[in-house]
Protein backbone atom coordinates (compact mmCIF):
# COMPACT_ATOMS: atom_id res chain seq x y z
CA UNK A 1 0.00 0.00 0.00
CA UNK A 2 1.47 3.32 -1.04
CA UNK A 3 -0.91 5.62 0.74
CA UNK A 4 0.31 8.51 2.79
CA UNK A 5 -1.63 10.87 4.99
CA UNK A 6 -1.64 14.07 7.01
CA UNK A 7 -0.03 16.14 4.31
CA UNK A 8 1.17 19.52 5.53
CA UNK A 9 0.62 22.31 3.05
CA UNK A 10 2.11 25.78 3.11
CA UNK A 11 -0.39 28.56 3.81
CA UNK A 12 -2.30 29.46 0.65
CA UNK A 13 -0.88 26.53 -1.32
CA UNK A 14 -3.57 24.78 -3.34
CA UNK A 15 -4.05 21.12 -2.35
CA UNK A 16 -2.92 19.48 -5.58
CA UNK A 17 -1.62 16.31 -3.98
CA UNK A 18 1.77 15.44 -2.60
CA UNK A 19 4.83 13.46 -3.46
CA UNK A 20 4.18 9.81 -2.63
CA UNK A 21 6.89 7.33 -3.52
CA UNK A 22 7.59 5.61 -0.18
CA UNK A 23 10.82 3.79 -1.20
CA UNK A 24 12.30 7.01 -2.55
CA UNK A 25 11.22 8.93 0.55
CA UNK A 26 12.84 6.30 2.79
CA UNK A 27 16.07 6.40 0.77
CA UNK A 28 16.09 10.21 0.95
CA UNK A 29 15.56 10.10 4.70
CA UNK A 30 18.36 7.59 5.24
CA UNK A 31 20.70 9.64 3.05
CA UNK A 32 21.10 11.97 6.05
CA UNK A 33 22.12 9.09 8.35
CA UNK A 34 20.81 5.85 9.92
CA UNK A 35 17.33 5.99 11.45
CA UNK A 36 14.73 3.64 12.90
CA UNK A 37 11.10 3.55 11.75
CA UNK A 38 9.60 6.26 13.91
CA UNK A 39 12.50 8.64 13.22
CA UNK A 40 12.07 8.04 9.47
CA UNK A 41 8.37 8.94 9.64
CA UNK A 42 9.13 12.18 11.45
CA UNK A 43 12.03 13.02 9.12
CA UNK A 44 9.96 12.40 5.97
CA UNK A 45 7.17 14.55 7.41
CA UNK A 46 9.66 17.36 7.93
CA UNK A 47 11.31 16.77 4.53
CA UNK A 48 8.25 16.93 2.29
CA UNK A 49 5.13 17.11 4.44
CA UNK A 50 4.12 13.50 3.86
CA UNK A 51 3.38 11.26 6.82
CA UNK A 52 3.88 7.61 5.88
CA UNK A 53 1.62 5.07 7.56
CA UNK A 54 3.45 2.34 9.55
CA UNK A 55 2.43 -0.39 7.11
CA UNK A 56 3.51 1.67 4.12
CA UNK A 57 6.87 2.43 5.74
CA UNK A 58 7.67 -1.20 6.54
CA UNK A 59 6.45 -2.33 3.11
CA UNK A 60 9.00 0.08 1.60
CA UNK A 61 11.73 -1.00 4.05
CA UNK A 62 11.18 -4.67 3.20
CA UNK A 63 11.39 -3.98 -0.57
CA UNK A 64 14.50 -1.79 -0.18
CA UNK A 65 16.23 -4.35 1.99
CA UNK A 66 15.45 -7.12 -0.53
CA UNK A 67 17.07 -5.00 -3.23
CA UNK A 68 20.02 -4.33 -0.89
CA UNK A 69 19.52 -0.58 -1.17
CA UNK A 70 19.33 -0.30 2.62
CA UNK A 71 20.69 -2.53 5.40
CA UNK A 72 19.75 -3.08 9.03
CA UNK A 73 22.05 -2.14 11.89
CA UNK A 74 22.15 -3.67 15.37
CA UNK A 75 18.82 -3.21 17.16
CA UNK A 76 18.58 -0.51 19.80
CA UNK A 77 16.28 -2.29 22.29
CA UNK A 78 13.28 -3.15 20.07
CA UNK A 79 13.88 -0.45 17.45
CA UNK A 80 16.13 -1.38 14.54
CA UNK A 81 17.87 1.43 12.66
CA UNK A 82 18.61 1.17 8.94
CA UNK A 83 21.23 2.80 6.76
CA UNK A 84 21.48 3.38 3.06
CA UNK A 85 24.01 1.25 1.14
CA UNK A 86 26.39 2.50 -1.55
CA UNK A 87 24.12 0.94 -4.18
CA UNK A 88 21.11 2.64 -2.57
CA UNK A 89 22.90 5.99 -2.68
CA UNK A 90 23.56 5.54 -6.41
CA UNK A 91 19.91 4.65 -7.04
CA UNK A 92 18.73 7.64 -4.99
CA UNK A 93 21.06 10.00 -6.84
CA UNK A 94 19.90 8.68 -10.23
CA UNK A 95 16.22 9.00 -9.26
CA UNK A 96 16.65 12.52 -7.87
CA UNK A 97 18.55 13.63 -11.00
CA UNK A 98 15.71 12.29 -13.15
CA UNK A 99 13.21 14.18 -11.01
CA UNK A 100 15.37 17.30 -11.21
CA UNK A 101 15.49 17.11 -15.03
CA UNK A 102 11.74 16.58 -15.08
CA UNK A 103 11.13 19.53 -12.74
CA UNK A 104 13.41 21.80 -14.79
CA UNK A 105 11.74 20.82 -18.04
CA UNK A 106 8.29 21.38 -16.54
CA UNK A 107 9.23 24.80 -15.15
CA UNK A 108 10.79 25.80 -18.51
CA UNK A 109 7.54 24.94 -20.27
CA UNK A 110 5.63 27.04 -17.78
CA UNK A 111 7.95 29.99 -18.48
CA UNK A 112 7.44 29.61 -22.24
CA UNK A 113 3.69 29.47 -21.82
CA UNK B 1 -1.39 2.38 19.81
CA UNK B 2 -2.20 -0.20 22.50
CA UNK B 3 -0.03 -3.33 22.67
CA UNK B 4 -3.03 -5.67 22.20
CA UNK B 5 -4.11 -3.94 18.98
CA UNK B 6 -0.52 -3.81 17.72
CA UNK B 7 -0.09 -7.58 18.29
CA UNK B 8 -3.43 -8.35 16.65
CA UNK B 9 -2.47 -6.30 13.59
CA UNK B 10 0.95 -7.96 13.47
CA UNK B 11 -0.68 -11.37 13.23
CA UNK B 12 -2.21 -10.37 9.90
CA UNK B 13 1.25 -10.49 8.31
CA UNK B 14 2.77 -13.73 6.96
CA UNK B 15 4.82 -15.62 9.56
CA UNK B 16 8.08 -15.25 7.58
CA UNK B 17 7.55 -11.46 7.50
CA UNK B 18 6.78 -11.41 11.24
CA UNK B 19 9.92 -13.38 12.02
CA UNK B 20 12.02 -10.79 10.25
CA UNK B 21 10.26 -7.50 11.09
CA UNK B 22 7.82 -8.41 13.89
CA UNK B 23 9.67 -6.99 16.91
CA UNK B 24 10.69 -3.68 15.35
CA UNK B 25 7.32 -3.25 13.60
CA UNK B 26 5.49 -3.79 16.88
CA UNK B 27 7.75 -1.17 18.49
CA UNK B 28 6.84 1.25 15.69
CA UNK B 29 3.10 0.53 16.11
CA UNK B 30 3.40 1.23 19.84
CA UNK B 31 4.92 4.63 18.96
CA UNK B 32 2.18 5.35 16.40
CA UNK B 33 -0.88 7.30 17.57
CA UNK B 34 -3.97 5.07 17.53
CA UNK B 35 -6.48 5.81 14.79
CA UNK B 36 -8.52 4.20 12.03
CA UNK B 37 -6.12 5.54 9.42
CA UNK B 38 -3.15 3.69 10.94
CA UNK B 39 -5.15 0.50 11.42
CA UNK B 40 -6.40 0.55 7.82
CA UNK B 41 -2.90 1.29 6.56
CA UNK B 42 -1.50 -1.74 8.41
CA UNK B 43 -4.36 -4.06 7.36
CA UNK B 44 -3.90 -3.14 3.67
CA UNK B 45 -0.12 -3.52 3.90
CA UNK B 46 -0.53 -6.92 5.59
CA UNK B 47 -2.77 -8.04 2.71
CA UNK B 48 -0.14 -6.90 0.20
CA UNK B 49 2.54 -8.86 2.09
CA UNK B 50 0.30 -11.93 2.13
CA UNK B 51 -0.18 -11.73 -1.63
CA UNK B 52 3.55 -11.28 -2.12
CA UNK B 53 4.32 -14.21 0.18
CA UNK B 54 2.42 -16.55 -2.16
CA UNK B 55 5.42 -16.54 -4.46
CA UNK B 56 8.06 -17.22 -1.81
CA UNK B 57 7.73 -20.65 -0.22
CA UNK B 58 9.63 -20.84 3.07
CA UNK B 59 10.04 -24.62 3.10
CA UNK B 60 10.11 -27.37 0.51
CA UNK B 61 6.52 -28.02 -0.60
CA UNK B 62 4.98 -31.37 0.36
CA UNK B 63 3.36 -33.72 -2.18
CA UNK B 64 -0.04 -31.96 -2.16
CA UNK B 65 1.56 -28.53 -2.51
CA UNK B 66 3.85 -29.66 -5.31
CA UNK B 67 0.83 -30.97 -7.26
CA UNK B 68 -0.95 -27.67 -6.63
CA UNK B 69 2.05 -25.83 -8.04
CA UNK B 70 2.41 -28.16 -11.06
CA UNK B 71 -1.27 -28.47 -12.05
CA UNK B 72 -3.25 -25.73 -10.29
CA UNK B 73 -5.98 -25.79 -12.97
CA UNK B 74 -6.77 -29.39 -11.98
CA UNK B 75 -6.15 -29.22 -8.23
CA UNK B 76 -8.34 -26.16 -7.63
CA UNK B 77 -11.29 -27.22 -9.77
CA UNK B 78 -11.60 -31.02 -9.92
CA UNK B 79 -11.19 -32.01 -6.22
CA UNK B 80 -13.49 -29.22 -4.94
CA UNK B 81 -16.15 -30.12 -7.53
CA UNK B 82 -15.73 -33.82 -6.70
CA UNK B 83 -16.13 -32.97 -3.00
CA UNK B 84 -19.30 -31.00 -3.85
CA UNK B 85 -20.68 -33.90 -5.90
CA UNK B 86 -19.90 -36.44 -3.15
CA UNK B 87 -21.50 -34.33 -0.41
CA UNK B 88 -24.58 -33.58 -2.53
CA UNK B 89 -24.87 -37.26 -3.50
CA UNK B 90 -24.72 -38.37 0.14
CA UNK B 91 -27.16 -35.63 1.20
CA UNK B 92 -29.66 -36.69 -1.46
CA UNK B 93 -29.26 -40.36 -0.51
CA UNK B 94 -29.98 -39.48 3.12
CA UNK B 95 -32.99 -37.41 2.10
CA UNK B 96 -34.38 -40.18 -0.12
CA UNK B 97 -33.81 -42.96 2.42
CA UNK B 98 -35.14 -40.83 5.30
CA UNK B 99 -38.26 -40.06 3.27
CA UNK B 100 -38.94 -43.79 2.89
CA UNK B 101 -37.95 -44.66 6.45
CA UNK B 102 -39.71 -41.92 8.39
CA UNK B 103 -42.31 -40.39 6.07
CA UNK B 104 -43.47 -43.18 3.72
CA UNK B 105 -47.04 -41.89 3.49
CA UNK B 106 -46.19 -38.30 2.61
CA UNK B 107 -45.74 -36.84 -0.88
CA UNK B 108 -42.72 -34.75 0.15
CA UNK B 109 -39.94 -35.09 2.73
CA UNK B 110 -39.98 -31.32 3.27
CA UNK B 111 -42.37 -31.30 6.17
CA UNK B 112 -42.35 -31.12 9.96
CA UNK B 113 -40.39 -34.05 11.42
CA UNK B 114 -40.06 -35.65 14.86
CA UNK B 115 -37.92 -38.08 16.84
CA UNK B 116 -35.03 -39.84 15.10
CA UNK B 117 -35.93 -38.20 11.81
CA UNK B 118 -34.51 -34.91 13.11
CA UNK B 119 -30.85 -36.06 13.46
CA UNK B 120 -31.17 -38.26 10.34
CA UNK B 121 -32.37 -35.47 8.07
CA UNK B 122 -30.10 -33.05 9.95
CA UNK B 123 -27.10 -35.08 8.83
CA UNK B 124 -28.18 -34.74 5.21
CA UNK B 125 -28.90 -31.04 5.60
CA UNK B 126 -25.46 -30.46 7.16
CA UNK B 127 -23.82 -32.25 4.23
CA UNK B 128 -25.87 -30.28 1.70
CA UNK B 129 -25.21 -26.86 3.27
CA UNK B 130 -21.62 -27.75 4.20
CA UNK B 131 -20.61 -29.04 0.74
CA UNK B 132 -19.39 -25.68 -0.65
CA UNK B 133 -17.75 -24.85 2.67
CA UNK B 134 -15.80 -28.14 2.79
CA UNK B 135 -14.70 -27.60 -0.81
CA UNK B 136 -13.63 -24.04 0.03
CA UNK B 137 -11.54 -25.32 2.94
CA UNK B 138 -9.78 -27.70 0.55
CA UNK B 139 -8.96 -24.77 -1.74
CA UNK B 140 -7.54 -22.66 1.12
CA UNK B 141 -5.53 -25.59 2.46
CA UNK B 142 -4.08 -26.39 -0.95
CA UNK B 143 -3.29 -22.78 -1.85
CA UNK B 144 -0.98 -22.12 1.12
CA UNK B 145 2.17 -21.78 -0.96
CA UNK B 146 0.89 -21.24 -4.45
CA UNK B 147 2.74 -18.81 -6.70
CA UNK B 148 -0.44 -17.03 -7.82
CA UNK B 149 -4.01 -16.71 -6.63
CA UNK B 150 -5.96 -16.95 -9.89
CA UNK B 151 -6.77 -20.70 -9.82
CA UNK B 152 -7.75 -20.77 -6.12
CA UNK B 153 -10.00 -17.78 -6.85
CA UNK B 154 -11.59 -19.53 -9.84
CA UNK B 155 -12.12 -22.63 -7.69
CA UNK B 156 -13.69 -20.58 -4.90
CA UNK B 157 -16.02 -18.78 -7.32
CA UNK B 158 -17.11 -22.11 -8.88
CA UNK B 159 -17.79 -23.62 -5.47
CA UNK B 160 -19.68 -20.59 -4.16
CA UNK B 161 -21.79 -20.25 -7.32
CA UNK B 162 -22.64 -23.97 -7.22
CA UNK B 163 -23.42 -23.73 -3.50
CA UNK B 164 -25.75 -20.78 -3.90
CA UNK B 165 -27.59 -22.08 -6.98
CA UNK B 166 -28.11 -25.66 -5.79
CA UNK B 167 -31.62 -26.58 -4.75
CA UNK B 168 -33.38 -29.90 -4.07
CA UNK B 169 -36.83 -30.92 -5.34
CA UNK B 170 -38.84 -33.97 -4.31
CA UNK B 171 -42.08 -35.38 -5.68
CA UNK B 172 -43.81 -38.65 -6.37
CA UNK B 173 -45.25 -37.77 -9.74
CA UNK B 174 -42.38 -38.48 -12.13
CA UNK B 175 -41.78 -42.11 -11.22
CA UNK B 176 -43.98 -44.84 -9.77
CA UNK B 177 -45.29 -43.34 -6.56
CA UNK B 178 -43.67 -45.93 -4.31
CA UNK B 179 -40.16 -44.67 -5.18
CA UNK B 180 -40.47 -40.94 -4.99
CA UNK B 181 -38.22 -38.73 -7.01
CA UNK B 182 -35.46 -36.39 -5.77
CA UNK B 183 -33.68 -33.95 -8.05
CA UNK B 184 -30.76 -31.56 -7.55
CA UNK B 185 -30.88 -28.49 -9.81
CA UNK B 186 -28.71 -25.44 -10.33
CA UNK B 187 -31.09 -22.80 -11.54
CA UNK B 188 -31.36 -19.04 -11.75
CA UNK B 189 -34.38 -17.52 -10.05
CA UNK B 190 -36.85 -15.05 -11.49
CA UNK B 191 -38.31 -13.36 -8.41
CA UNK B 192 -37.12 -9.81 -7.58
CA UNK B 193 -35.62 -10.89 -4.25
CA UNK B 194 -33.80 -13.88 -5.73
CA UNK B 195 -30.48 -12.11 -6.36
CA UNK B 196 -30.53 -10.51 -2.92
CA UNK B 197 -30.98 -13.93 -1.30
CA UNK B 198 -28.25 -15.52 -3.42
CA UNK B 199 -25.75 -12.77 -2.58
CA UNK B 200 -26.50 -13.20 1.11
CA UNK B 201 -26.06 -16.97 0.77
CA UNK B 202 -22.72 -16.44 -1.03
CA UNK B 203 -21.53 -14.12 1.76
CA UNK B 204 -22.48 -16.72 4.39
CA UNK B 205 -20.57 -19.45 2.51
CA UNK B 206 -17.53 -17.21 2.03
CA UNK B 207 -17.55 -16.25 5.72
CA UNK B 208 -17.81 -19.89 6.80
CA UNK B 209 -14.89 -20.75 4.51
CA UNK B 210 -12.77 -17.85 5.78
CA UNK B 211 -13.40 -18.19 9.55
CA UNK B 212 -11.00 -21.15 10.15
CA UNK B 213 -8.36 -19.45 8.03
CA UNK B 214 -8.59 -16.20 10.02
CA UNK B 215 -8.68 -18.15 13.31
CA UNK B 216 -5.47 -19.92 12.29
CA UNK B 217 -3.80 -16.67 11.28
CA UNK B 218 -4.81 -14.90 14.50
CA UNK B 219 -4.06 -17.81 16.85
CA UNK B 220 -2.30 -16.87 20.11
CA UNK B 221 1.49 -17.28 20.27
CA UNK B 222 1.14 -20.26 22.67
CA UNK B 223 -0.38 -22.32 19.81
CA UNK B 224 2.34 -21.50 17.28
What features would you describe in this structure?
The complex is a heterodimer of chains A (113) and B (224). Chain A has helices spanning 22-30, 37-48, 54-66, 86-112; strands at 4-5, 51-52, 70-72, 82-84. By secondary structure, chain A is mainly alpha-helical. In chain A, the strands form two sheets. Chain A has a two-stranded antiparallel ribbon with strand order 1-2. The longest helix of chain A has 27 residues, at 86-112. Chain A starts with a strand and ends with a helix. With 224 residues, chain B is mostly helical. In chain B, 65% of the residues lie in helices and 5% in strands. Chain B has nine helices and two strands; from the N terminus they run H-H-H-H-H-H-H-H-E-E-H. Chain B has helices at 3-10, 15-31, 36-53, 63-70, 72-75, 78-102, 117-142, 150-165, 194-217, and strands spanning 166-171, 181-186. Chain B has a two-stranded antiparallel ribbon. Chain B starts with a helix and ends in a 7-residue tail after the last helix. The model of chain B has no long low-confidence stretch (mean pLDDT 83). Chain A binds chain B through residues 1, 3, 5, 36-38, 53-59, 61-62, 75, 77-80, and chain B through 17, 20-21, 23-29, 31-32, 37-38, 41-46, 48-49.
